[in-house]
Amino acid sequence: MANQLSPPFGTPIIAPHYCDPGPHPVHLIITRERSIGENFTVTNSNGNIVFSVKSNIVSIVTPRRHMYLFDAYGNPIVHLQGSISSDNWKAFRGQSAESGDLIFRRERSSLFQLRTKLNVKATWFGSSWDVYIGDSNILVAQINKKLGTIFSREKYMVTVSPNIDHAFIVALIVTLES
């Protein structure tokens, strides 16, 4: 099943309206902005902004990393909270950090703590990733990293299967790359 996306389970993780019913995959371009902190702009194949990700600078007062995923209209969708001492992330609805609003956790050791387990497998050079459901061969997203130069920004070319929550895939990518 190499390089083909399978039409999978269709369970929304962030929201059902981010699960495009298809029949074609969703193609996104995530561009890392040149700024202080981790900021990203996400566009579709027509160049329209779909999401943006903004980060807060870590300080002694807030010893966690915080990033916020916004929709195209600037509405907060997800608050991503990362640990400074480890590569663990929690994702909460909107701007919340309350346990009742927890959507998912990403931990480097087990990768995800979700109702449905996901695994991310990377190629040798780490420039592309495939996202599968659990230990199955159901491929739900492919990410190809294009390294930037002095004159260009780093980009991620993303293909998300139909019925897969592409807001979740974006949140996953920015936590893996921050």
Automatic annotation (TrEMBL):
It comes from the Eukaryota. InterPro entries: LOR, LOR_sf, Tubby-like_C. SUPFAM superfamilies: Tubby C-terminal domain-like. Pfam families: LOR. Belongs to the LOR family. This is Uncharacterized protein. It comes from Phaseolus vulgaris.
